[in-house]
Amino acid sequence: MTITRLLLGSTLALTLGSCAMLSPATGYTLARQPAGGALSSSGVVNVKKDGMTVMTGARVSGLAPNTYYVAHYHLQGAASKDPCSSGGAPIMTSALVGRSDATGMLSLTGSVAAADVMNATYFNIHTAKDATGAPADAGVTCTSVKM
Ligand SMILES: [Cu+2]
User: 146 C-alpha to center of ligand 1: Å?
Assistant: First the structure.
């Protein structure tokens, strides 16, 4: 188990090393956020660094239909070492607001200054109160990220 983890770790480091030169997108799988209640959504986030900009695309299914959602990158919080449980502050310049379709599918895309999100440890999606993107909960789905 330990050996497998070490090997995985070095493979990841090599992959990230080559990514820095070629800057392809890094894909993450969204999982239910511990604070997220009963919704069991699934989805992916693609993060692409392009010079001074980070471009983000998220596709999530299994959400409530016709509902506004808001995504942010977050700084690490103190509540847990697990980023998605840490309760960290949202990075407001990274907010992406969108509305799910009638089947509960949500697509979000946007870009943010790389400097703004360089210390982010997770990306999550909250139910939003409305089109302004004010969060209505602590987050329904989340992934840790390495910027
Ligand atoms: Cu958030």
Answer: 16
Q: What does the pLDDT profile of the chain (147 residues) look like in tens digits?
A: 444 444 444 444 444 444 444 567 899 999 888 766 656 788 999 999 999 999 999 999 999 999 999 999 999 999 999 999 999 999 999 999 999 999 999 999 999 999 999 999 999 999 999 999 999 999 999 999 999
58: in domain: yes
> Does any domain span residue 10?
no
Whole-angstrom distance, CA of residue 110 vs CA of residue 116? 14
CA 72 to ligand 1 center in whole angstroms? 4
How far is residue 132 CA from its own chain's centroid?
Answer: 19
As a whole number, the mean pLDDT across the chain is 86
Distance of CA 73 from the midpoint of ligand 1 (Å): 6
Residue 2 lies in a domain: no
Whether residue 19 is contained in a domain is answered as no
Domain hosting 115: range is 24-144
Quote the number of domains for the chain: 1
CB 60 within 8 A of CB 141: yes
| Closest by Cα among 143, 146, 140 to 106 | 140
91 CA distance to ligand 1 centroid (A)?
8
